[in-house]
Write a structure and sequence with these properties.
By secondary structure, the chain is an alpha+beta fold. It is 32% helix and 25% strand.
Length: 107
Amino acid sequence: KEWEELHQICKTLKTVAQELEIAIIVLAQLNDDGALQAAKRMRNEADILIKLMPMTNEETIEALSKRYRISPDYWIYLDKNRDGQGEVKIPVRFEKSKMQVIDVANA
């Protein structure tokens, strides 16, 4: 039942955004396994899907070799982009205590 309500909300928000010609951002929390509740239906309705994902140890070590002024520990991952390029990873530093995301490439 919950996924049906969530799907209807997403469809309604998409319709409103198209009618008003505005962007609407919807935030959703992932499950412990990294999956999104009702993910398939939400993904179908979304024009853009962005995730904040922790780097693996290997990715963190590789990022350190790029000599950013601030060491990245997360990715902003552009998973889906209906009108453009998807599967893009942007290295960032996520300061959990401040809930702040820092673009390490331009810091």
